[in-house]
Each structure stands twice: as C-alpha cells, then as structure tokens.
Amino acid sequence: MMNLNMEKASEPKKLIIFLDCGDTIIDEGTEIRDENDIVIKADVIPGADIMVRTLAERGFTMAIVADGYAQSFKNILTQNGLYDYFATMVYSETVKAFKPSPRMFKAAIGALDLSMDDCPRIMMVGNNLSRDVKGANQMGITSVFLNWTPRYPKQHADESEKPDYTISDPLELIELAERLNERLA
Q1: CA-CA distance, 39 to 75, in Å (whole number)?
Q2: Rounded Cα gap, residues 70 and 38, in angstroms
Q3: How does pLDDT run across 153-173, given as a tens digit for each residue?
Q4: Which of 14, 59, 84, 116 could, after both became Cys, cross-link 184 (CB 3.0–4.6 A)?
C-alpha cells in the first residue's frame, strides 16, 4: 500500500508552475556579482529550497521565468542544488525581452510544449507586481505574489498588477499549488 501512495505522489500534476528566481527562490540581498554583473554566489530565501524540492517530488512541472543573465541563474541554482528541478529555464537575456513582456511567458509555454490553451493551468510565482504579476495576468496565467522582500512595492499600482493570490513564505506555495491542482482535476 505504501508503494502505491508513493507512486501517486509522483504522478505528473496538471498545474504547471512558473517561478521567478530573485527574491522568489534566491535572496537578492546575498548576491555576489563579478565584474560582468554575473551573479557568482547567492543564498536561497529560507524555505525556498524545500519548496522547490517538495513541489518536484509531488510531480509538479516547474520552469524558471526570470529577468537576468543565464549564467547567473546557472551559478546560483546549481550551487544551491536546485538547477535540475526545473523542466526549462527562460531568461530575458536569451528571449531579448523582460517581464511583463508576453514573449517571456510564451517562450516558457513553448519550451514546455504547451499552447496558449494551457494558460489557465499555469501559475506564475514572483516577487514583483509590475513584472511577474502583471505579465501573468495579461496572459491569463494565475498570478501569485510572494510578498517576502522589502525591495519592491507591495501595493499594486492598478488592476493589471493585482495578484490572484498572495503568499508571504515560500512554503505556503506547496499547499496553494496542491489546492489549485485539485481544482483542475
């Protein structure tokens, strides 16, 4: 019986999770950059590593959708043991656009072999209302604001920046993802 439950836990979920990286997984306040502005070292937000591992173990497909340099994300996600948990990674450097541009989200959708019809089953989690939340909202993607950092505004400027959900701790995402996945089943 235990084996059956283990298999069920790792079955792929319907909900797809897009995650920003800075101040969503990695604490931007701990970043150490080289002379080319590449992040060479940074620490995870407390609980973010557990969140990523738990969501992966439970069968969620996750993608990084982040503004910045590919090498920065490779460095910090690898050194924190999180790089291999993501099915794809989409960066502004390679897409040649920054969130809230639809190009960022469409690149991730395409990389996962999804279509625009899949937007209602995608959740975007980020720390920035004007980029992560606004970008998700304009695509019909469920927006989740991680209200963790003091570095960015916590009040939406207008309706386009209003998140569908707000969490204050990365670990809260696990329960929210399970709940939203249940609604899709």
Answers
A1: 7
A2: 9
A3: 889 999 999 999 999 999 999
A4: 14
